[in-house]
């Protein structure tokens, strides 16, 4: 058997074992797998003939997971959501401020003339 991964909990190790088992790869879990206190690292081991396939599967899963947002990720701030005409709150306020400055400049020019 060859070591392919070490994870922090038995739950994570069982998920990996299930993923590899779904592809027909036999796994062995070593470390703090059972017992009254399920804390501590757990190693996942596979037969030597399946090392390359197991490594590729786990790598592909990690790459694929990188493209999906994690549930713990922050939601976009309110200023990043479009309000109207596709403008965010910050851009909308900047546009309104620019219009007010232009209106004040035109009013000042008319008052002088």
How is the secondary structure organized here?
Elements: E1 2-7, H1 10-22, E2 28-31, E3 42-46, H2 51-65, E4 82-84, E5 87-88, H3 89-112
What can you see in these coordinates?
The protein has 113 residues and is of the alpha+beta class. The protein folds into two domains: 2-65, Alpha-Beta Plaits (2-Layer Sandwich); 78-112. Helix content is 46%, strand content 18%. It is built from three helices and five strands; from the N terminus they run βαββαββα. The protein has a three-stranded antiparallel sheet, with helices on one face. The longest helix has 24 residues, at 89-112. It is rod-shaped. The protein starts with a strand and ends with a helix. The relative contact order is 0.12. The model has no long low-confidence stretch (mean pLDDT 81).
Encode the helix/strand succession as letters: EHEEHEEH
Q: What CATH first level of the largest domain would be assigned?
A: Alpha Beta
Strand order of the largest sheet: 1-3-2
Helix content percent band:
40-55%
Number of strands: 5
Q: State the major sheet.
A: 3 strands, antiparallel
| Oligomer status | single chain
**End-to-end CA span:** 91 Å
Keywords:
alpha+beta; 2 domains; 113 residues; 3-stranded antiparallel β-sheet; 3 helices; Alpha-Beta Plaits
What's the quick description here?
The chain is of the alpha+beta class. The protein contains 3 helices and 5 strands; from the N terminus they run E-H-E-E-H-E-E-H.
């Amino acid at each position: 058997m060859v070591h392919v991964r070490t994870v922090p909990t038995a739950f994570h190790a069982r998920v990996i074992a299930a993923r590899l088992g779904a592809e027909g790869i036999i796994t062995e879990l070593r470390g703090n797998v059972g017992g009254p206190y399920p804390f501590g690292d757990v190693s996942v081991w596979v037969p030597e003939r399946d090392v390359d396939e197991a490594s590729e599967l786990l790598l592909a899963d990690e790459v694929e997971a990188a493209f999906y947002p994690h549930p713990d990720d922050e939601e976009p701030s309110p200023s990043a959501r479009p309000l109207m005409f596709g403008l965010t709150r910050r851009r909308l306020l900047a546009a309104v401020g620019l219009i007010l400055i232009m209106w004040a400049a035109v009013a000042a020019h008319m008052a002088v003339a």
